[in-house]
Design brief:
alpha/beta, Glutaredoxin, four-stranded mixed β-sheet, globular, binds zinc ion
Length: about 240
């Protein structure tokens, strides 16, 4: 099935594939505009369209991709594709905006800059409409439970190596909440500027102080303001 920016490959459920295509085009427009990438709007057309593969069931998806059993889908940066299987609403409402964001973000910042995992996952989650709604409560709970991972810890953690599911949860919530904080508190254009600095090979600290010269001078200051925004205090 062909759209303006996407090819959808499916085997069985044509109606579902149709929904996927329609939603993908809609997410593409809203995500690109929110991240300020309108000038890239011609980027994913014709043979550069993103390919979405919908396998009929989880078993065939795992067999083809060799992913971990808990994986529900993936973005493949090299082949500009999203791969998953025909499951429930979460495909349309969560997986699709998440993986499309990964691809748009990578297209913009490139593959060889120093893009930390928390930022990659933070941006992708921020574009999932439902997650955005739940973030405030999830952060409040982490704060109340005393499970906050420091900003420094967040920046250094390679969550792919972590098996403690609580810590994985904390990582994802904090990553999304930090991106949410920067965008809501200081606006999209500063955030886009921050991403542009990363694309131009500054590291995270340099990019932050460049894009937020008056508001976030140091990581310590950022940590304090971010936690305060969600009702916590820096220890
Ligand atoms: Zn992700």
């Amino acid at each position: 099935m062909k759209g303006e920016h996407f090819f959808v490959y499916y085997q069985q459920d044509k109606k579902f594939a149709n929904d996927v295509l329609r939603q993908s085009e809609s997410y593409y427009r809203s995500i690109a505009s929110e991240l300020g990438y309108q000038r890239y709007s011609g980027f994913w057309t014709w043979e550069n369209r993103v390919k979405i593969y919908i396998y009929p069931d989880k078993e065939s998806f795992l067999k083809v991709t060799g992913q971990n059993p808990w994986s529900e889908g993936m973005a493949d940066y090299t082949n500009k594709s999203v791969i998953s299987y025909a499951w429930n609403q979460n495909f349309l409402e969560a997986l699709l905006p998440h993986e499309i964001t990964h691809l748009i973000f990578r297209d913009y910042v490139g593959m060889d800059g120093e893009i930390p995992l928390w930022l990659d996952e933070g941006v992708a989650q921020w574009m999932e409409p439902q997650k955005r709604e739940l973030l405030q409560a999830a952060m409040a709970k982490i704060i109340v439970d005393g499970k906050i991972l420091s900003l420094d810890g967040l920046m250094r953690l390679d969550v792919r190596q972590v098996s403690d599911s609580d810590l994985v949860h904390t990582f994802y919530v904090e990553a999304a909440s930090l991106v949410g904080f920067l965008i809501k508190e200081y606006g999209s254009s500063d955030f886009i500027n921050f991403c542009r600095q990363l694309r131009d090979k500054k590291n995270v600290r340099e990019a932050l102080t460049f894009a937020y010269p008056t508001t976030v001078r140091t990581l310590e200051q950022l940590e304090g303001k971010w936690l305060a925004y969600y009702g916590g205090v820096k220890k």
